[in-house]
Amino acid sequence: MGLTTYQPTAQTHLRRYRAILASTLIFLSVALFALLPLHPRTRTATSSFVHPFRPPSTNNAAPVHPPWLIAVSVSARNLQRRTLIRYTWMDWYARAGHFEGIFFLARPDPAWADVIQKENATYGDILVLDGIEEDSQWTATHTKPLELLKVVAQGGWKGRKYDFVSKVDEDSWIEAKGFYEDFLRPRLEDEQGTPLDPPNMTMIGCLINCDGVDKAPAGGFETFSWDMVDLLPRLHEEFPNEGEAEDCLMGKLLEDARIPFEFVDMIPDRGVDVNEVGHAFWGEEKGELEDFPEALVIHNAKTDEMWMRVVGLYDENGWTRDHAEG
């Protein structure tokens, strides 16, 4: 019996070619990230830092900036998630010029300080909250969000003011283009595109049930008009509410101070949670992740596998139905 000679098929060659190409791209990306801070132009930019964690100087920045700031809460260690966010929704939807996307973290462990500084020298999109340490889940869910609002209100991000500021968890996918068109643009300009007066006392998010609080947004994605960004940290000094979770705290502060505000609810189908097997839900609404084509926020995509599954449902224009044949 003669030996059978293996003859690779065209499909096999194509798979090998794709694997080689993917490996090459990954290698080049890592090399670029490692070498870019050493480039003379990059060294010049970093030499102007007032603080080692602050973003590069913006002396040459355009005088007009987007009306919306999206700040993603991250830990220093989760470099991979920051990379995934940068190259998916934060890149796709920022192209229209409606928002500026950044990451914020508490003061990192000294072992990570150099990594964060070099990463920021490369991307210039990380805000470090020096006033708090990255030491616990309590910091992440209680102190950190209000510290972000306080620092931003005081001009801590490039000295800028925005019409709206959103705080986002790192496990939340944001279809920012659709959110801007459906929730923010109508509050910023009329149908002819004429600017409206700045929005006042407006909070947008997914309504969550809280004991003793009528209106509060889930912490995975919450958006505030600029006057709220300035007001909420000051209210927290007056009404500390030390035991209140972030999800309920923002609404409770305003209700404790008896300050009226507008709450815009994204429920039932514009914001959902997803579990580890891809079932999406919010309250009584349940189904497969793919059953929520109107979703603008998908929260709890903790693993990279689940994150990429969500990515596959969207492109730079928003939701895509191509997943049906995937």
Question: In words, what does this structure look like?
Answer:
The chain is an alpha/beta fold and about 325 residues long. Helix content is about 35%, strand content about 20%. It contains ten helices and 14 strands. It has helices at about 10-35, 40-45, 80-85, 90, 110-125, 135-155, 175-190, 225-240, 245-255, 305-310, and strands spanning about 70-75, 100-105, 125-135, 165-170, 175, 200-205, 215-225, 260-265, 270-275, 280, 285-290, 295-300, 315, 320. A seven-stranded mixed beta sheet has the order 3-2-1-4-7-6-8, with helices on both faces. It has a five-stranded mixed beta sheet with strand order 5-12-9-10-11, covered by helices on one side. Mean pLDDT is about 80; it is low at about 1-65 and about 320-325.
SS summary, helix count: 10
Largest sheet: 7 strands, mixed
Order of helices and strands: HHEHHEHEHEEHEEHHEEEEEHEE
Query: What characteristic shape results from the CA principal axes?
Result: globular
Q: In terms of per-residue confidence, which ranges show pLDDT below 50 for 5 or more consecutive residues?
A: 1-63, 322-326
Class by SSE composition: alpha/beta
Strand order of the largest sheet: 3-2-1-4-7-6-8
How far apart lie the N and C ends? 43 Å
Report Rg.
22 Å
Helix content: 25-40%
